[in-house]
Amino acid sequence: MNKICTAVLISHICIHVCYSQVNTPNGVAVPPAALFAYQNAGFYTDAQLQSNQNAIQNGLYGPSCTILANYSRQYNCHGYAWHVSTGGAQTCIDQVTFGGVTPYIAGVNPSYTQTNYNSTVGKLRIRYSGDHSALTTYDGKFISKFGPGPLVKHNALDVPPGYGNPSTCWTCNYAPPLTSVYLDGKLISGSFQTTTWGAHNMQIFWGLDPDTGPTFSPTAGSTIISNQSSGAVNFTFNGPSNNGGLSIAFCGAPRYSFTFFKPNGAKMQVYPNPAREDEVITISSKSPEDIQAVNLNGRVNRITKIALLDERQRLVQNYLSNEDGDLTTVKLNAGLKGTYFLKATFEDRTVQTKRVLIEK
């Protein structure tokens, strides 16, 4: 019986079926011809598969073998190592010769690159010299699916003899999509966020199971306090510029970034208002009412761009800001009359708009 079951596990007794599209983590399609299903009735029965699983648990291929999941016809060794373990659905994927594993390791956008084996690194993909694939663990073990048999944790050589020996080692080269990001417990969207200076927490959730990461790195204006492998980071956002940020890396390469801006609380005091055509308008950051175009720390938030818009918010003219201490001035053109809007863009990328009436 053991010899019969060994042959079952190392052979492809299968039929090709029509699957929905299967993609690598980087979105490359796996050829439909490389996807197959084990027959539900064939040269082996459920009783034979169960008997072989019991034999594996009892040391058929070595004392290290531990059953992690029962036998299943839904996926095989390549399906588990390259697809299921990254969060994909259970499916059987054929060997490199038939184009099954090839899209994962070769082509214009491979999801894995070849590397050297390290017994302390987990989730490396291992290709055996025979037709077999496995996944490494952090304690020097391998995890692999024995054909339609069980999912097994084992030493490198405790496998059916037809699988051969470990041959090549592959590490991930993909970026799992972020499904949601929380800043201080609140769901956010987009990479550009306005928040206050001080201590903050960010937690991210991703769509695929990454091999390594995420890891966070600060940009100027941010400092990492602690970084948790669960995808949570505590950081401070505190100058010296008015913005800072975090870079998020998966598989050792930066893939996502978030930039934080401090709310400036800026309001413009524009005078004279009403103004006359061909008159100089002054934008003050020191008004009697303490309405100032400044950052929350009191530092003047410079105006980098000024635009004059008409009542329908159409651009009339752009101005270069003319600064003199805390004052910025622009000169109106002749022929303007009616209601306009003076739009100022500040150095922290925030925008303020002030209604201006221009008289003849």
Automatic annotation (TrEMBL):
InterPro entries: Secre_tail
Organism: Dyadobacter soli
Name by which UniProt lists this protein: Por secretion system C-terminal sorting domain-containing protein
NCBIfam families from the UniProt entry: Por_Secre_tail
Superkingdom per UniProt: Bacteria
